[in-house]
C-alpha cells in the first residue's frame, strides 16, 4: 500500500496526546503496564518521563513530538506491516517514525519480550 501526501499530512497533524490513551489501553488490556509502554516510547524517542509528560500536557502533534525526539538509531531494525503499510517501504520520515511507534506498541501488546521489542 502506498502512503499518500494526504495521509502523511494527516499523521503529522494528529495530536500525540489523543493517540496515547489508545496505546495505553491496548497494552493494559493485554496485561502489560504503563511503565512498559513508557520504556518503549523512551527507547524510540530518547525522552525521559518528564519530557514525555510535558509533551502530553502540551498536546503536541506527532510532527512536533518526533521533531524534538532523538530517534534511536536501531529504530531502522523495526520492520513489518502495520496498519496495512510495510514500514521499511514508507518514504516519509515522520510517517515511518509514527509507524515505528505503532509497531512497538503492537509488539508489546502481543506479549513479545522487551529485549526483542527494544532490538537489543
Automatic annotation (TrEMBL):
List, alphabetically, the InterPro entries matched: SP1917_dom_sf, UCP033199
The source's domain of life comes to Bacteria
Gene3D superfamilies, sorted: uncharacterized protein sp1917 domain (1.10.8.290)
Q: What is the protein name for this chain? A: DUF2200 domain-containing protein
Q: What species was this sequence derived from?
A: Croceivirga radicis
Q: According to the entry, what is the taxonomic lineage of the organism?
A: Bacteria, Pseudomonadati, Bacteroidota, Flavobacteriia, Flavobacteriales
Amino acid at each position: 500500500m502506498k502512503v499518500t501526501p494526504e495521509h502523511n499530512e494527516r499523521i503529522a497533524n494528529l495530536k500525540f496526546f489523543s493517540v496515547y490513551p489508545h496505546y495505553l489501553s491496548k497494552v493494559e488490556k493485554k496485561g502489560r503496564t504503563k511503565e512498559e509502554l513508557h520504556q518503549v516510547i523512551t527507547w524510540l524517542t530518547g525522552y525521559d518521563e518528564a519530557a514525555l509528560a510535558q509533551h502530553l500536557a502540551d498536546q503536541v502533534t506527532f510532527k512536533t513530538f518526533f521533531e524534538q525526539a532523538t530517534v534511536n538509531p536501531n529504530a531502522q531494525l523495526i520492520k513489518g506491516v502495520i496498519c496495512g503499510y510495510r514500514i521499511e517501504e514508507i518514504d516519509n520520515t515522520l510517517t515511518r517514525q509514527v509507524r515505528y511507534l505503532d509497531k512497538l506498541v503492537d509488539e508489546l501488546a502481543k506479549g513479545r519480550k522487551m529485549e526483542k521489542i527494544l532490538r537489543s
